[in-house]
Amino acid sequence: MKRGDLVRLSEGVPGRTWFTVGSYADAPNARAMYESAFSVPDGSVALVLRIEACPKFPAPEDHRVHVLVNGRAGWVYPEDGEVIST
To answer: CB count, 10 Å around CB of 6?
Structure first.
């Protein structure tokens, strides 16, 4: 996965019809961060804007993938996106 790729977003949960995207809203705590997230239909296609290493957890699976999906910017984890076009 790299900048410019199109990815299909899915958490792979049977029966779930939505996918939660992290938000960039200025959240003072974890609850506020969760409440600022937004949902898109499961299987939505997103454009990868950039990939950012998490300073607290530097492992690749903890990186944040910044995406544009359904006209909104947000972030997902790498395992939540399947590359469908490069």
So the answer is: 15
Distance between CA atoms of residues 31 and 38, nearest Å: 14
Q: Which two tokens stand for residue 71?
A: 């006209």
**Phi, psi of 41, deg, nearest 5:** -60, 140
3-state secondary structure of 22: strand
Instruction: State the residue for tokens 């996106």.
Output: 81
| Rounded Cα distance, 74 and 77, in Å | 11
Strands 45-52 and 6-9: antiparallel
Q: Which residue has the tokens 């899915």?
A: 10
**d(Cα 51, Cα 47) in Å, to the nearest integer?**
11
Q: For 5-42, how does the pLDDT look when each residue is reduced to its tens digit (9 = 90+)?
A: 999 999 888 888 999 898 876 666 666 666 778 999 99
Tokens (6 digits) for 35: 């409440």
Predicted TM-score of the model (pTM): 0.82
